[in-house]
Amino acid sequence: MKKIQMLIDGEWIGDQNDQWIDVIDPASGKLTTQIVRGDNAHADRAVQASKNALKSSTWKSVKPFERGQLLQDTARYVRENAEELARLESLDTGKPIGQANADIEAAARYFEFYGGLADKVFGDTIPIEENLVNFTTIEPIGVTLHIVPWNYPIQITARSVAAAIATGNAVIVKSSEDTPLTTNFLAEWFNEKLPKGVFQHVTGYGAEIGAALSSHPGVDQITFTGSVPTGIAVMKAAADNVVPVTLELGGKSPNVVFKDADLDRAVPSIVNSILQNAGQTCSAGSRLLVDESIADELLERIKERFSGIKVGPPSHNADVGPIINEKQYKRILAMLGSIDKNANVLAGGKAVQVKGYENGFYISPAIIEASSHSDFFVQEEIFGPVLSVIRFTSVEEAIDLANDTPYGLVAGVWTKDIDRAHYAASRIDSGQVFINSYGAAGGVQMPFGGYKKSGIGREKSHLAVQNYIQIKNTAIQLQL
């Protein structure tokens, strides 16, 4: 078993003097590897190394187009090693290998996209008055901290790291204690290609090294993806140092199906949106809002799809893999066990034993028709393969229901009526609205972020570079 060391200041850190954390394969419950339990001293050393890298002429002298070429090379490297990276991602998360393959390609696209953008982040000249030349220049924001969750480790690492490196920053990645493997793979690559301190990978518990980094006065910007409570804690820590944050905190996203929807198109998309990565997706389509007149037909079609779903480890070519860890597994089962008897459980929601993988964390995908939209499983993010169903009778009611949660990340609207589609999309409080689809392959070019408690700021697309830059205004008074 190869242990995962941290990469700090160009050195691999982790020996017999450090504490180590077990990393468990969610598919089998067996030990995968161990990571260093990072502490305050590790955090401080990483931040200082990043500061030194930013000051050094070595990194400053790298031209924007050269940063772009490095990221393009990284995209090629990811694709050349796609099979191994998908294996590692699947081992870390338990997701089916087909989904892991899609994640690797998405990561490559992030590096490719921001590689192409690196020398196209421009300042402006601004007309003020005669004999005054005024212009803006773009500078890196500095030391950027990237706190990455366990559900899409390589994708989420790539999407923010690529934008930060493209704009000349030094980055510190804190991977989840559950999923360090693919970030470590990238760290080995960047350690060979970048000056020391420009890319660093630290490991450990969020409450320890994650908190130490979030509150460190040497960090200049934080990108965090995860739960609302942890996001609030990160934001409070950043506020003490007046540090900007980009937060992506989850959702309770609806698929809104009107009576004229094309169900042949809608059903597979709705099913995939809740079963992708065993429902462990911030943008999962976890609420189904359906017109009363077609509800019975739609639910029968979805139940039929669910009946053919295979739950199991990646080695079984399953449709739905395990829950990430025992804690999350028990939490989901406890939530399912406390559902009010007035709710109608149409399918699933039980622990699943897989032969040969009895210690894995498997749950059968559930469909639950709620008695009220205020039911906790409709309002709260379960982060598992659980689809909540509510019926509506009018367009206005559908929009009110879509907006009736603390979140606003993604929504799907299903209708053949273009007027109804635009009307609903303009009134749903959501960072992304898809019409007659749900999600996009990678969605690299699309701004991604939420309303309300789904977060602050936008990732993906050209807009993401704004998270990692400072804008300096210079005014020159001409003396004639």
UniProtKB/TrEMBL annotation:
InterPro entries linked: Ald_DH/histidinol_DH, Ald_DH_C, Ald_DH_CS_CYS, Ald_DH_CS_GLU, Ald_DH_N, Aldehyde_DH_dom, Aldehyde_DH_NAD(P)
SUPFAM superfamilies: ALDH-like
One GO BP annotation of this record: aldehyde metabolic process
GO MF annotations, alphabetized: oxidoreductase activity, acting on the aldehyde or oxo group of donors, NAD or NADP as acceptor
Keyword vocabulary terms for this entry: Oxidoreductase
Domain Aldehyde dehydrogenase: 12-473
Positions of the catalytic residues: 248, 282
One Pfam family this sequence matches: Aldedh
CDD domains per UniProt: ALDH_AAS00426 (cd07109)
Gene3D superfamilies attached to this UniProt entry: Aldehyde Dehydrogenase, Chain A, domain 1, Aldehyde Dehydrogenase, Chain A, domain 2
Coiled coil: none
Family: Belongs to the aldehyde dehydrogenase family.
Protein name: Aldehyde dehydrogenase
Source organism (scientific name): Jeotgalibacillus proteolyticus
